[in-house]
Each structure stands twice: as C-alpha cells, then as structure tokens.
Design goal:
Layout: E1 5-7, H1 12-20, E2 25-28, H2 34-39, E3 47-50, E4 59-62, E5 65-69, H3 74-79, H4 81-86, H5 88-95, H6 100-103, H7 108-114, H8 121-128, E6 131-134, E7 138-140, H9 141-144, E8 159-165, E9 169-176, E10 183-192, E11 195-201, E12 209-210, H10 212-220, H11 245-263
Length: 264
C-alpha cells in the first residue's frame, strides 16, 4: 500500500471540495473493492476521503418509491422491514451479495460508483429504472451506466441516494461464482409503469445491460415460456476461466426464466 493522506469530512460540501480540488483524491465508502486495490498497490491516490461521516445512510418509503441513502450497507437493505414490504426483491438481492463480512461493510453507493461488471445492484437499478441522486443532480439509470467500471459521475461528484420506483412485479436470479460469489450471470426482470425492463449483469463485456429482445417477449407475456426461442449473442459476452462466452450466453436465458418465475 502506498502512502496517502486521509480525510474524514463531516459535511457533503467539504467532501466534494476535497475530491474536486485534487484529481488524484479518491472517495472511500465501504471499501470492499477499494481497500484490496490499495493493498495490492493497483492505485496510488494522493488522498483518501472517507464518506462515512456524511450521514448518507438510511431508507425511506414515500408513496410509490423507496429511497436508499448511498452509505446504507447491504445488510441494512436486506434486513429492512420497509424494503421487505415494498421491494422484497431488493432485500433478497442484498442478502446474497458476497459474504457476511462484505454485507456488513459494503454500501449501495460504493457499489454503484465502482460499477463492477459482476455486481448485483447495477442490475436492480437498471431494471427498475431507478434514479441516482448526487450532490449536484439526478441521473437516470439508463444514462448512468456507461461501460465496465465507467459511470456518468464527474470528478468530485458524490452519490447521495438511490430512488427506486416500486414495480408491479420483479424478480432477480443470479448464477454466482462459487469462490467470489459475484454473478457470473445475473438477470433482474421488472414490470414497471414504463413497461417491462430486463437487466443482465456479470455476463457482458461492457458491464450491465438491458436485454431488448427479452423485454419485448415479456411485454407480450410475462411468463418464463415467453423467453423460449429468445437468444443472447455470445459476441459481447465475457470469456474467461470461469466460463466461455457461449456458456454465459446460454446461462442468460436459463437465469432469466428463473427470475421471471420468481417475479410471478
């Protein structure tokens, strides 16, 4: 681990100032990705800005939405009575992120800011058409994710909360890597006010993506059988020691049917 300065601001304005004034400064949320990266000397930040003192944790339900503060831990989402009542699929997703240690440190904002191509939350955010709120604006899910480890966030911009609309139906299923528990393929399906949305994580070379053909099929009939004959091209799938591109393309269809069955 390289030497770096450490700051723990107590206001959002001070955190933004610390990050915006130094392009080599990095934010620390739960640290479940960032700390291992530092330990392996894969990053050399000038300053680490700890966001834990900003009061950005918490869950609120208002009408047809569930809003989750950026520093809310996975375990708190999983255990929340409000999330279980209004958006149970999200509680179930959070309950199966990593292992218990990861769930007690990792945060939803950190996961979304990192945008790991095998993470679970991006699939939920994209499939539900959630809104990512930052210190300066609101970003729609369709505009936020811009490729592997790439988002619409600008230098110094901090996620403050995520606003989820409550769908009519939703389901999430993943095929996890048995060692890391990251999704080799994860599919989130949702019937929303704007129509059916399907998001796939873990499989694509460019990170999370919407599956237009599946959305069209499920819009006609929201049943697992509606996906019979809907294929996923292997060209853009990940291909590594854990599974070939063709294997992942096949898994997308299998896992999607399971997600629809859960939703129904």
């Amino acid at each position: 681990m390289y030497d770096f300065a450490y700051q723990k601001p107590t206001s959002l304005a001070d955190a933004v100032k610390a990050l915006s004034g130094d392009e080599d400064a990095k934010a620390l949320a739960g640290g479940q990705t960032f700390i291992p990266v530092l330990k392996q000397r894969l990053a050399k930040p000038s300053t680490v800005v700890d966001l834990s003192g900003l009061g950005l944790a918490g869950i609120t339900v208002s009408g047809t939405t569930v809003t989750i503060g950026a520093m809310t831990r996975h375990c708190d989402v999983a255990a929340s009575a409000d999330v279980k009542a209004k958006l149970p699929v999200l509680a179930g997703l959070a309950a199966h992120i990593g292992d218990e240690a990861v769930r007690h440190r990792g945060t939803i904002g950190g996961s979304l800011a990192n945008n790991d191509p095998t993470a679970d939350y991006p699939a939920a955010v994209l499939a539900l058409g959630a809104t990512i709120k930052t210190d300066r604006r609101s970003i729609s899910a369709d505009d936020y994710f811009q490729g592997m480890f790439t988002t619409a966030l600008e230098q110094g911009e901090i996620i403050t909360s995520v606003k989820f609309p409550i769908p009519a139906k939703a389901g999430y299923e993943k095929f996890p890597n048995p060692a890391s528990r990251y999704a080799m393929v994860g599919v989130f399906v949702a019937q929303t006010a704007g129509g059916v949305r399907v998001a796939v994580t873990g499989a694509g070379q460019g990170g999370v993506f919407r599956h237009a053909d599946m959305e069209k099929a499920l819009a006609a009939s929201f049943t697992p059988g509606a996906l019979d004959g809907v294929s996923t091209p292997a060209d853009d799938m990940n291909n590594d020691i854990h599974g070939s591109a063709e294997y992942r393309a096949h898994l997308v269809g299998v896992v999607a049917k399971r997600a629809v069955a859960k939703a129904a």
